[in-house]
């Protein structure tokens, strides 16, 4: 079964600093991997996705993630944090089932930005 | 235009009641989902319908019954509500062949007292 582990339930960085959110996955097949962001009292918004093309994936708002098969990792980075990046971030792996996609989420990482 | 919408946004009810949450998507997708987010923010899939056919049915109590009248709608009916049903419920949709990217609704916060 697919699974995802996000290291660190809470990450705090200063404005302008590098953001690094860690995600490790377990999958018996080549995975599709996703990062979603959830702002307070809102739904989930897709940041970026890996679907077996380029291993370095660029997303919205200058976020990017690198798929490393040897490390079973898909860490999310952003070179310079903005106050508006404060949110909950979820890494997910998908299990494709007959026209549907079962997303298995990690437990989430709350990102706090310090002025 | 809202891509995936849910009603109501907030739902407060007493134990034992029956309630429904509605979801509509205007993206032309053929697959819809229900997820539950608990108080610790953990997200778990509950159901998925593809072209009105139930595809994914996780270990959810029988008190939860999804209904899909057409491809654009997926409703969730909950019987005999319990305190543990309090959560945020998210609807989502996707289109097969598009890397299965899912679009989420704004969520319905259900509080059972």
Largest sheet of chain B: 7 strands, mixed
Strand content of chain A: over 45%
Number of helices of chain B: 0
Distance between the termini of chain B: 34 Å
Write down the secondary-structure element order of chain A: EEEEEEEEEEE
Name the average pLDDT of chain A: 93
**Rg over C-alpha atoms of chain B, rounded to the nearest angstrom:** 13 Å
- Which class best fits the helix and strand makeup of chain A? mainly beta
Low-confidence region ranges of chain A = none
What is the gist of this entry?
The complex is a heterodimer of chains A (115) and B (113). Chain A is mainly β.
Q: Which short descriptors sum up this protein?
A:
heterodimer; A: 115 residues; mainly beta; 6-stranded mixed β-sheet; 11 strands; 0% helix; B: 11 strands; 56% strand; globular
List the SSEs and their pairings.
The complex is a heterodimer of chains A (115) and B (113).
Chain A: E1 3-7, E2 10-14, E3 19-26, E4 32-38, E5 44-50, E6 56-58, E7 64-68, E8 73-78, E9 87-97, E10 100-105, E11 109-114
Parallel strand pairs in A: 2-11
Antiparallel strand pairs in A: 1-3, 3-8, 4-5, 4-9, 6-7, 7-8, 9-10, 9-11
Chain B: E1 4-7, E2 10-13, E3 19-25, E4 31-37, E5 43-50, E6 53-57, E7 64-70, E8 73-78, E9 87-94, E10 103-104, E11 108-112
Parallel strand pairs in B: 2-11
Antiparallel strand pairs in B: 1-3, 3-8, 4-5, 4-9, 5-6, 7-8, 9-10, 9-11
């Amino acid at each position: 079964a697919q699974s995802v582990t996000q290291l660190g339930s809470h990450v705090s960085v200063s404005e302008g600093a590098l953001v690094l959110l860690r995600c490790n996955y377990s999958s018996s097949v080549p995975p599709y991997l996703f990062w979603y962001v959830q702002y307070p009292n809102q739904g989930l918004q897709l940041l970026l996705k890996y679907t077996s093309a380029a291993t370095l994936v660029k997303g919205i708002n200058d976020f990017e993630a690198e798929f490393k098969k040897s490390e079973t990792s898909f860490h999310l980075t952003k070179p310079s944090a903005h106050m508006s990046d404060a949110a909950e971030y979820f890494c997910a792996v998908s299990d494709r089932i007959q026209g549907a996609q079962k997303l298995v989420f990690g437990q989430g990482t709350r990102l706090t930005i310090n002025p | 235009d809202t891509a995936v919408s849910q009603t109501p946004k907030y739902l407060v009810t007493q134990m034992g009641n029956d309630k429904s949450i509605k979801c509509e998507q205007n993206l032309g997708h053929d697959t819809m989902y229900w997820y539950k987010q608990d108080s610790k923010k953990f997200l778990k899939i509950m159901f998925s319908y593809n072209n009105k056919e139930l595809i994914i049915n996780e270990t959810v109590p029988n008190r939860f019954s999804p209904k899909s009248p057409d491809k654009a709608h997926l409703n969730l009916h909950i019987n005999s509500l319990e305190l543990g049903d309090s959560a945020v419920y998210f609807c989502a949709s996707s289109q097969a062949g598009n890397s299965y990217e899912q679009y989420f609704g704004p969520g319905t916060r259900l509080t059972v007292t």
